[in-house]
Amino acid sequence: MANEAHIAQLIVRQLRENIAPSERRELEFWRDSSPSNRRFLEEETREEAMVGTVRGGVMVDKDATWRKYEALRDQHLLSQRRTPMIRRYRRFAAAAVFIALAGACAYLWSHSKQEENTPVISEPYLAVTPASSLNASLALQDGLSVQVNPAVKGRVALQGAMVTAMDDNKLVYHTDLLSYAGISDILYREDISTPGLQYNIFHAPFGTKYELMLPDGTHAVVNAGSYLKFPVTFAGGSRVVELEGEAFFDVQPDPQHPFNVLAGNKKIEVLGTQFAVRNYTDEPVQTVILQQGKVKVHHKKDVVELHPGQKAQISDDQPIKVVDVDLSKALSWKDGYFNFDDLDLRAAICQLAQWHGMKVRIEKDVRIKSLGSGNIAHSISLPRLLKLLELPDLHFEIRDSTIIVKR
Amino acid sequence: MEQEYLDPLLIEKIRDGDNQAFKIIMDHLHERLAALAFQLLSHRENVEDAIAQGFLKLLEHREEMESISHVEGFLHETIRNLCLDMLRKDQRRKKLWELRPAWVARSEETTRENEADYKVLRAELAYFLWAEVGKLPAHLRIAYRLSVLEKVPAKEVAAQLGVSERTVRTYVQQATEELYAAAVSKGLHILLILFLLRMLAEKN
Questions:
Q1: Residue A235 distance to chain B (closest CA, Å)
Q2: Does the domain spanning B1-113 belong to CATH 3.40.50.620?
Q3: Which of A68, A157, B32, B176 is 20 to 30 A from A250, comparing alpha carbons?
Q4: Average pLDDT score over chain A
Q5: Is the CB of B129 less than 8 angstroms away from the CB of A54?
Q6: CATH of residue A242
């Protein structure tokens, strides 16, 4: 970005006609370094800048705005008429709330003993923040944040030496386009002198997963509600990425440059392999599942080596625990499925809710212990999925951002 | 539509809260207000909300309006402020978002202030340029709007205007020249150049 800013500054000076001769030569050098730079400078500068600005005027639907205004207006006029009534009710409402609260307290107090030894949950306990936006985003080091819209294919961002392109829910880094644009050449040279300084942060929102091809060719599947931070170019001795949430990695083998995943206070050390890391900060236990190859999991002073088909369970105050898992079930999410085998009702619903960024509330009288087995596609909408899972004595309701499970 | 907007009695009707008069204002100003709001909010639906709320404010304050240009200024300012409020709320919400890792927060914070300034400048420019688009002669305005903003193929634009494709290109060129000249005459070309930063970053 530093370079882009500099070039832009030169263009500004030229347009204001106070550019120094040396700067003019620099700008000319940049212009001549690629045909696209030349075109940009000579033709597109003025026109496209204006077009980008005014286009908003035709992108917004006037009729939709008018309908929204009419709705607001009607509400406004109605509320003006109703005000006295509401005032009258307000005092009554306050009293009603007080009575209800007192009742609830008394009820909770009388039932608190009994609740201690019932495993059934009545309060929302999975506090997953709802998605900030429906689109995935890619935060670039220079502060630009690019919305990734699955409906639009093509280039999404250019940073440093890298060009990001996407196809459906896939992001691909095209290193072969390095020599495509002159400005990339300039930045590429700079990047070598200051290695590893530029990072991208990819954010997959709730309700979807994304596939990424990292700059070194490593394939990553980033699950819903996760962040992956990775350098624009891998430089130096080892390849390091940071993860918050869940991701599956198929690491491009390169013994000279070991691949490391930092997940909170855990480190996963890799040499060419396929594995999944689950590191949602709101969950007490984090996991690493190895599909192929070999990884070492570091947590505080603990180090564990995993073999294919094994899962490491990491919680803050205990040593790492290693168990065997059924890979097709444990990694079903990366192929686009929920798998509820061997999960109790609570764990299964939580998995579902986590993916959609929802909370869960299970009412006390629910007797069903599991949601059954088999794979269910992520792509089924939540209301429809819940409808499918319903049983004669198991029902669901979505209220605000909570899934309520009831009899 | 133009004549309705220039009707000297329009302001009276606005003061009376006449719905049809509000519609005339919406028809006439929507594009430039949308251009303004779009730069700040970049989501179509949020833009619709902001403009609708701005018009509601106009309804509430209709009796204070002295002239149509007063209405224009009021809507411009109110909607810009509503957008900025929405932006701020959005940022506050993000701040409360505990799941967000620390490094995301850091990189956002450093750029937020520049970003907001930049956005406001850009929004003002958008509003100004749209007003200028509105002043173009009809044939230039339509050609510019269709072929440049809506990306309708030159052939279709030519058919719609009943002229040759070459003439359409000439119209577009003329419109661009006039807009640019208007921007320069207001000293806005420097603002315009701010776009270079963004465009260089997005350049294909």
A1: 20
A2: no
A3: A157
A4: 69
A5: yes
A6: 2.60.120.1440
**How would you write the pLDDT of chain B (204 residues) with one tens digit per residue?**
567 888 888 999 999 999 999 999 999 999 999 989 988 887 888 899 999 999 999 999 999 999 999 999 999 999 999 998 888 777 666 554 444 444 444 445 444 555 566 677 777 777 887 888 888 888 888 888 888 888 888 888 888 888 899 999 898 888 887 877 776 666 555 555 555 555 554 443
Give helix then strand counts, H and E, for chain A. 10, 23
Mutate to test the interface with B, among A36, A38, A50, A354 (most CBs of B within 10 A): A50
Alpha carbons A67 and B55: distance in angstroms, whole number: 12
Residues of chain B in contact with residue A7, where contact means CB-CB under 8 angstroms, are 196, 200
- Can you read off the two tokens belonging to residue A243? 């993860």
Alpha-carbon torsion, ordered B46, B48, B53, B55, to 10 deg: 160
Same domain, A301 and A346: no
What Å distances lie between residue A104 and A124, A399, A404, CA to CA?
A: 16, 21, 19
Q: How far apart are CA A366 and CA A349, in angstroms?
A: 13
Q: Do B35 and A141 touch (CB under 8 A)?
A: no
| Residue that the structure tokens 């263009």 belong to | A11
Which tens digits make up the pLDDT trace of A129-147? 223 334 556 555 444 455 5
Query: Hey, is A405 helix, strand or coil?
Result: strand
Number of domains in chain A: 4
**CB distance A230 to A141 below 8 Å:** no
CATH architecture of the domain with residue range B136-204: Orthogonal Bundle (1.10)
